[in-house]
Amino acid sequence: MHRSRGDGPKWVSQLITGGAWDSGEVSRLMEGEEMNRVLSIPLSKHNIRDRVIWNHSRSGEYYTSSWYLTARDMRKNGDLHGNYRGESSRGGSVGSWWKELWSLKMPPRVKLFLWKCLDNALPTRDNLMKRGMKGEECCVLCNSMPETIFTYFD
Predict the structure, then answer these.
(1) Which of 80, 129, 145, 153 could bridge to 75 as Cys pair (CB 3.0-4.6 Å)?
(2) Which of 38, 42, 41, 44 is nearest to 26 (CA)?
(3) Is the distance from CB of 122 to CB of 114 less than 8 angstroms?
(4) What's residue 1's pLDDT?
(5) Is 89 part of a structural domain of the chain?
(6) 101 and 115, same structural domain?
(7) In angstroms, what is the C-alpha Rg of the chain?
(8) Which CB contacts under 8 angstroms, 24+ apart, belong to 100-108?
(9) Cα–Cα distance measured from residue 3 to residue 28, given in angstroms and rounded to the nearest whole number
Protein backbone atom coordinates (compact mmCIF):
# COMPACT_ATOMS: atom_id res chain seq x y z
CA MET A 1 0.00 0.00 0.00
CA HIS A 2 1.84 3.03 -1.17
CA ARG A 3 -0.95 5.57 -1.70
CA SER A 4 -2.33 5.87 1.77
CA ARG A 5 -4.77 8.74 2.09
CA GLY A 6 -4.96 10.55 5.38
CA ASP A 7 -5.03 8.25 8.37
CA GLY A 8 -5.35 4.98 6.44
CA PRO A 9 -4.31 1.62 7.83
CA LYS A 10 -0.68 0.83 8.52
CA TRP A 11 -1.01 -2.95 8.22
CA VAL A 12 -2.51 -5.22 5.58
CA SER A 13 -4.40 -7.01 8.35
CA GLN A 14 -6.42 -3.81 8.81
CA LEU A 15 -7.83 -4.34 5.29
CA ILE A 16 -9.21 -7.77 6.21
CA THR A 17 -12.51 -8.28 7.99
CA GLY A 18 -13.95 -11.68 8.91
CA GLY A 19 -11.35 -13.55 6.83
CA ALA A 20 -12.08 -11.59 3.62
CA TRP A 21 -10.85 -8.38 2.05
CA ASP A 22 -12.71 -5.28 3.19
CA SER A 23 -13.41 -4.08 -0.36
CA GLY A 24 -14.69 -0.71 0.84
CA GLU A 25 -11.47 0.03 2.70
CA VAL A 26 -9.30 -1.25 -0.17
CA SER A 27 -11.20 0.90 -2.70
CA ARG A 28 -10.77 3.92 -0.42
CA LEU A 29 -6.98 3.47 -0.63
CA MET A 30 -6.51 2.23 -4.19
CA GLU A 31 -8.19 2.32 -7.53
CA GLY A 32 -8.33 0.50 -10.83
CA GLU A 33 -5.89 -2.31 -11.58
CA GLU A 34 -4.05 -1.92 -8.27
CA MET A 35 -7.28 -2.42 -6.30
CA ASN A 36 -8.28 -5.43 -8.46
CA ARG A 37 -4.88 -7.06 -7.92
CA VAL A 38 -5.13 -6.68 -4.15
CA LEU A 39 -8.69 -8.01 -4.03
CA SER A 40 -7.66 -11.02 -6.14
CA ILE A 41 -5.01 -12.14 -3.62
CA PRO A 42 -6.36 -15.24 -1.88
CA LEU A 43 -6.43 -15.08 1.91
CA SER A 44 -5.57 -17.94 4.21
CA LYS A 45 -8.42 -19.70 5.99
CA HIS A 46 -6.14 -20.24 9.00
CA ASN A 47 -5.79 -17.49 11.54
CA ILE A 48 -1.97 -17.44 11.62
CA ARG A 49 -0.05 -14.32 12.57
CA ASP A 50 2.11 -12.93 9.73
CA ARG A 51 5.87 -13.05 10.04
CA VAL A 52 8.87 -12.46 7.85
CA ILE A 53 10.39 -15.64 6.43
CA TRP A 54 13.71 -16.01 4.63
CA ASN A 55 12.96 -18.61 1.96
CA HIS A 56 16.60 -19.62 1.57
CA SER A 57 17.05 -21.35 4.93
CA ARG A 58 15.22 -24.31 6.44
CA SER A 59 14.30 -22.43 9.61
CA GLY A 60 13.03 -19.35 7.79
CA GLU A 61 15.58 -17.23 9.67
CA TYR A 62 18.05 -15.04 7.79
CA TYR A 63 21.74 -15.87 8.16
CA THR A 64 24.61 -14.23 6.32
CA SER A 65 25.84 -17.68 5.32
CA SER A 66 22.48 -18.48 3.73
CA TRP A 67 22.68 -15.28 1.67
CA TYR A 68 26.21 -16.15 0.58
CA LEU A 69 25.10 -19.62 -0.56
CA THR A 70 22.04 -18.17 -2.30
CA ALA A 71 24.12 -15.54 -4.12
CA ARG A 72 26.67 -18.18 -5.12
CA ASP A 73 23.94 -20.42 -6.54
CA MET A 74 22.31 -17.48 -8.32
CA ARG A 75 25.65 -16.59 -9.90
CA LYS A 76 26.18 -20.18 -11.08
CA ASN A 77 22.69 -20.26 -12.59
CA GLY A 78 23.08 -16.87 -14.25
CA ASP A 79 20.34 -15.33 -12.08
CA LEU A 80 22.66 -12.78 -10.50
CA HIS A 81 22.95 -10.02 -13.09
CA GLY A 82 25.97 -7.83 -13.66
CA ASN A 83 29.62 -8.47 -14.19
CA TYR A 84 30.70 -8.47 -10.57
CA ARG A 85 34.21 -9.84 -10.34
CA GLY A 86 35.05 -8.87 -6.76
CA GLU A 87 38.44 -7.43 -7.63
CA SER A 88 37.77 -3.73 -7.48
CA SER A 89 35.27 -1.63 -5.61
CA ARG A 90 34.98 0.54 -8.72
CA GLY A 91 33.35 -2.10 -10.88
CA GLY A 92 34.34 -2.31 -14.50
CA SER A 93 37.25 -4.28 -15.77
CA VAL A 94 40.51 -4.39 -13.86
CA GLY A 95 43.74 -6.11 -14.68
CA SER A 96 44.99 -9.32 -13.17
CA TRP A 97 47.73 -7.38 -11.43
CA TRP A 98 45.25 -6.55 -8.63
CA LYS A 99 45.02 -10.24 -7.81
CA GLU A 100 48.78 -10.52 -7.94
CA LEU A 101 49.17 -7.58 -5.57
CA TRP A 102 46.83 -9.13 -2.99
CA SER A 103 48.53 -12.54 -3.28
CA LEU A 104 52.03 -11.18 -2.55
CA LYS A 105 53.67 -12.54 0.58
CA MET A 106 54.08 -9.38 2.62
CA PRO A 107 52.35 -7.76 5.57
CA PRO A 108 48.78 -6.67 4.79
CA ARG A 109 49.58 -3.07 5.72
CA VAL A 110 52.26 -2.94 3.00
CA LYS A 111 49.81 -4.38 0.44
CA LEU A 112 47.24 -1.79 1.49
CA PHE A 113 49.79 1.00 1.15
CA LEU A 114 50.79 -0.20 -2.34
CA TRP A 115 47.16 -0.47 -3.37
CA LYS A 116 46.48 3.08 -2.14
CA CYS A 117 49.54 4.35 -4.03
CA LEU A 118 48.49 2.63 -7.25
CA ASP A 119 44.91 3.86 -6.84
CA ASN A 120 46.03 7.42 -5.97
CA ALA A 121 44.07 7.09 -2.72
CA LEU A 122 46.65 8.40 -0.23
CA PRO A 123 45.63 11.55 1.65
CA THR A 124 48.14 13.80 -0.11
CA ARG A 125 47.36 17.49 -0.12
CA ASP A 126 46.20 17.48 -3.74
CA ASN A 127 43.81 14.59 -3.04
CA LEU A 128 42.50 16.28 0.09
CA MET A 129 41.90 19.50 -1.88
CA LYS A 130 40.00 17.51 -4.56
CA ARG A 131 37.74 16.22 -1.78
CA GLY A 132 36.93 19.72 -0.55
CA MET A 133 39.42 20.17 2.29
CA LYS A 134 40.75 23.67 2.70
CA GLY A 135 44.42 24.40 3.18
CA GLU A 136 47.70 24.73 1.35
CA GLU A 137 48.32 22.55 -1.69
CA CYS A 138 52.10 23.01 -1.52
CA CYS A 139 54.37 20.25 -0.33
CA VAL A 140 55.49 20.52 3.30
CA LEU A 141 58.99 19.41 2.31
CA CYS A 142 59.82 21.86 -0.51
CA ASN A 143 56.97 24.38 -0.10
CA SER A 144 57.02 25.11 -3.82
CA MET A 145 55.24 22.31 -5.70
CA PRO A 146 51.83 20.75 -5.08
CA GLU A 147 52.01 17.66 -2.89
CA THR A 148 50.99 14.59 -4.94
CA ILE A 149 51.73 10.89 -4.67
CA PHE A 150 54.69 11.46 -6.97
CA THR A 151 56.27 13.94 -4.54
CA TYR A 152 57.48 11.06 -2.40
CA PHE A 153 58.73 8.81 -5.19
CA ASP A 154 60.70 11.26 -7.39
Answers:
(1) 80
(2) 38
(3) no
(4) 46
(5) no
(6) yes
(7) 28
(8) none
(9) 10
